[in-house]
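TICKET: design request
STATUS: open
ATTACHED STRUCTURE:
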């Protein structure tokens, strides 16, 4: 049996070890350097002077989605826009192309949504995303509209980008919200 070369700080799927053993799960369980994170996900911990370092969130998500595209969004992203959202994040929201539902990965909960999203998200996309999720974010629509108008006047968000993102990723209610803010921001 070959011994795999593991990089510290990386997250691996069981299937990565198929070429090394006819029973990759058994092999992974014998590799004492690997820490199980969830079904089929294992972590090769990095050591620090304080002990093992937990895996980075992006490393866990990359392995979980097998390298397919995903986008982490939610309250931590929305709050940073300065449009009145101040929600605490309980379930980080992850858009992806494969599945929806709630999962726990590496001891942390995530809410997965299989939806369309841009491969290169812009701040304008996250504004549209916030408006789409205003109920989840506990957003006061009047406060958000005023803040968006002020941000558009100050040039913090692109008018064309807002129209484009609302048209591509927003519902009719979101498109109307954005159009009224754009009209007022002239």
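STATUS: resolved
RESOLUTION: sequence designed for all positions
ATTACHED SEQUENCE:
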């Amino acid at each position: 049996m070959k011994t795999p070369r593991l990089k510290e700080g990386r997250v691996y799927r069981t299937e990565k070890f198929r070429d090394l053993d006819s029973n990759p799960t058994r092999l992974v369980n014998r590799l004492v350097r690997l820490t199980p994170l969830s079904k089929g996900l294992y972590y090769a911990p990095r050591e620090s002077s304080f002990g093992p370092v937990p895996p980075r969130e992006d490393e866990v998500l990359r392995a979980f989605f097998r390298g397919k595209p995903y986008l982490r969004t939610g309250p931590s992203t929305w709050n940073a826009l300065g449009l009145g959202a101040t929600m605490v994040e309980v379930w980080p929201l992850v858009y992806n192309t494969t599945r929806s539902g709630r999962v726990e990965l590496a001891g942390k909960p995530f809410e997965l949504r299989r939806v369309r999203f841009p491969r290169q998200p812009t701040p304008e996309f996250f504004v549209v995303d916030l408006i789409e999720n205003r109920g989840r974010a506990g957003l006061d629509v009047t406060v958000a509209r005023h803040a968006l108008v002020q941000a558009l006047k100050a040039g913090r968000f692109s008018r064309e980008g807002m129209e484009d993102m609302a048209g591509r990723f927003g519902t009719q209610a979101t498109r109307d919200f954005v159009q009224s803010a754009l009209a007022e921001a002239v």
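CLOSING REMARK: The beta strands are 11-13, 35-38, 41-43, 46-48, 51-53, 70-73, 93-96, 101-105, 108-114. The radius of gyration is 21 Å.
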